[in-house]
Please model this.
Amino acid sequence: MKKYCAAVVILALAACGESEATSVISADGTTEYEVSRTGEDNRARISDAEGNEAVVTVGSDATGELDLPDGYALYPGAEVESSTTFNGSQGSGVMVTFAADAPPQELVEYYRKQATSAGVEIDTDARTGEERMIAGEGPGGLSFSLQTSPGGNGSTGILVIAQ
Model:
């Protein structure tokens, strides 16, 4: 897990250069880090010898990197700010940070419909002021959560789907 948390630090370092790749050898094995920057877009890829991989993309390229599971779609007109994908021996998942021209409640209903259609049982529905969070689990270890809050002319959201 520590390897994947390093992605945020690596993205920050990407601002200093165009592209970099390196290997780190530790007691846990070899981990490969690759960072690239094109204009305002940053991408970090971290992988290990066991086939685990994390890819973090920030900027306009994040939309192109987005790979939501079947049955899920980005809210119409939403702009992806960052996307993170994880694939490994213990499962896979995606985390998307986005902005949409809609109130939090509308985003909650949009994603609730997708989650329940995928068999997710929503067991958390929290409100703090105008902020909202829903979460639940589904078949085969499927995990879903959405956090939204007002921002700009609409809302910002963080969507996490893992299995």
Remarks:
- The longest strand covers residues 29-38.
